[in-house]
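Batch job 17 of 40 flagged for manual review because the log was empty.
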Amino acid sequence: MKSDKARNKSISQLFAEITPIEEAVKAGAREALLRHKLLRQPAAVWRDGKVVWVSPDELEATE
């Protein structure tokens, strides 16, 4: 969900400030991992330089 500050900025302003974009990507990733955990499905994550499948029991929303 966009904050009021983000709604009032142009796309060029948002890209000039990478932090809001990074925060949005991280929030989306956390939501996706939580969804996988709740649905009891494995998720692909990046670990040690490669993509690996992680079981729902191992998933943490902070990955």
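Reviewer: the log was empty due to a logging misconfiguration, but the result itself is present. The mean pLDDT is 84. Unflagging and moving on to job 18.
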